[in-house]
Amino acid sequence: MRCLLLLVLLLAASPSRAGTVASECWSSCRRHVTDPSLRARTCPICVTGGRVDSWVPALGAGGAEAQVALTSALKDPSWRVRWAAVRAGARSRGLTDRRALADWIMDAPSEADLGPCLTAVRAAADAGKSTADFLQDAGARGPSAAARVWKRKEGIRQALFLEMFAQEPSVRMPALMHLATFQGRSATRVVLDAVASRPVAGDEVMASLLSVVAERQRVSVGRLLLMEAKPPDEAAVNRLFAVYSREIDALRPELASGDAQRRRTAAAGLRRYGPLASRELEGALGDGDARVREHAARGLAEAGGKPLRDVALQGVKAAETAEAARPWLEAMAHEKGCAAFLREVAEGRNARTPEIQGEAVAVMGDCTEGGSPMRRLTPYASSKVAPVRAGAVRALGALPRNPEALELAATALEDGEPEVVAAALDVLATYRQPSRGDDAAGLLGSDHPMVRAAAARALEFVGRAPHVRVLAERLLTDPVADVRVAAARTLTVLGGPQAVAALSEAAARDADSHVKHVSQDGLRRLGFGR
């Protein structure tokens, strides 16, 4: 009674699958072990065993009652319990597992040998072998046992085929993989044949199975189908495509979400469809989030069945702008061989424009190859090409803060090119350097809008109350809307009466709708307005 109570408590506290396995194990043990004393010693193993057959090995060295239970277990619905019973019986008789399996097959009456044959097929497939190879070491009866199994191939196929459509999802994938191994065919081929022979109602089950196969093989379902499908499979492929199209339709709106994490999840999910989601993945290459862009780049490479490096090189060479090259460079920055790949682009061998060269330098901070990042970046910081210098400074933002990086960013504030100065401001803001607040405030008067906007952004992190006045002036008088937007956002963070007054005037009078919106939102955040 105490053991039964312990099992009930365990199932109440366990995740559903663990609880189900323990319950199945308990039921299996009680079904075959009828002796009360033996049951009390054996069945509680299910509480911690973690497998449906956990109780069986304990009977291997038992007496007559244990042998009766093992004989009964050979008829269990679970092949794992049957195989465990064979193995436990083999140990008690001093035989190898496979020899005992061959004896069981050959000694079974022909009308009752499907269970032994199916057990042999599944045990062999679980070991990654054909039944003939698995029974090769079974002694003199091995070849005859393998031949008898093959004679029952249609019954075995039907049994595994039905399990592929079982209500319990955990049963389906082992059945598919075991049937594929037994037949010497790919899992994709088994799925296609199953779709062709069954009503449309089962298509979602088969589509989900193929998705798991693709995930295990690290390819997309679209790629699997392209590699396996033949002209006669057109109808089955179209039925699977219909299922995947519905799933892609459900993910598509997530790519437009304002939440970057939701877009990342959607882009990662689209990768499993490969060429079926090419249009969506190509669109995600232009996303504002680097992780989304990387998922899209990797998904497109997988869709083509090519190494990421080859596809990225093609993408960079074809790119006419830094924005077009960026996803491929970002993806390669986390790939083996990133140092050599990025260096070749940075030096202009595979880049059409200086801006693309600079983009390659900018992502070098994410590449862990090639020694010290600072040692790799320093030569580019003194390049004669302004976008390359800017890229070297931008790369500092991905590195841990250190004196050498701070010095390089501070020096870049004196550069004559606005893109380099803007990059330096962004890095100093990332490093949260309040000592650079006055420098950033001074650059609000730059002739270059890019620098003024970067200075306004930086003051959000390095600014102080005295800087509110110049920010308010930028918000109310700067001719460039991007600068005014940046000033409004920073004033919202710094706050104070002067910030509220400037935001109120901009919200009421600015000619740009975006500036108005940001100013109104800033007022709400500061507790004014609705």
Automatic annotation (TrEMBL):
Pfam families noted in UniProt: HEAT_2 (PF13646)
Top-rank lineage group of the source organism: Bacteria
SMART domains in the record: EZ_HEAT
The keyword Signal belongs to this UniProt entry's keyword annotation: yes
Signal sequence range: 1-18
InterPro entries reported in the protein's UniProt record: ARM-like, ARM-type_fold, PBS_lyase_HEAT
Keywords for this protein: Signal
Protein name: HEAT repeat domain-containing protein
The species this protein was found in: Corallococcus praedator
Lineage: Bacteria, Pseudomonadati, Myxococcota, Myxococcia, Myxococcales
